[in-house]
Amino acid sequence: MNMQKLGAEFIGTAFLLIGVVGSGIMAQTLTDDTALALLANAIATGCTLYFIITILGPVSGAHFNPVVTLAFAIKGDHPWPLAVAYIPVQIIGAILGVWLCHVMFDLSVLQFSTTDRTGAHQWTSEIFATFGLLFVIMGGLRSNAAAVPTLVALYITGAYWFTSSTSFANPAVTIARMFSDTFAGINPAHVSGFILAQLVGLFVALAVLPLLFGPAKDGAD
User: Fold this and answer.
1) Which residues contact 55 (CB under 8 A, 6 or more apart)?
2) CATH number, domain at 203?
3) Can you give the pTM of this predicted structure?
């Protein structure tokens, strides 16, 4: 097993959650304006995605997301044994990233979110958000692979605002965020609904995107 690739996925996903949760905590600390807090959260997340994808893309492919890993594995562009190893590493990295945020902001490390995120509108949002993320990645790889870090960063920054769920689009992120009762949290009871919606978005993307882009390779693997 390639430990360099696994290490990159672990560190990258941890950085992603530090960006998501840490900026949410900071924003919530500095302002009572929810719109301003969401803007700060979105910008910080987009910035984090840009640097982790740019730096770690050549190492592991910069998935940081079980849905992305599954998409490439199902398409035959990523070996299944490595995909099976990527997913738990991504989840563990995400959770540890959340816990590190709590330490940095002097919060209780072990906590569970009480923020409700559920309902057909949010599930639909997660289906669309996940489809959109894969659209951006696969389309970017087909048209301009060097621009993928920028495209993903811009997409997620925007999707925070044009989706009702604020575009989790990532099972590892969803699982990790249930361990933070802060701005970015999600009630553990609602995690399964989000993940199911993300998987639906994955299979919609796998059905639709080849019609647009045809086969595309994950050049980092």
Assistant:
1) none
2) 1.20.1080.10
3) 0.94
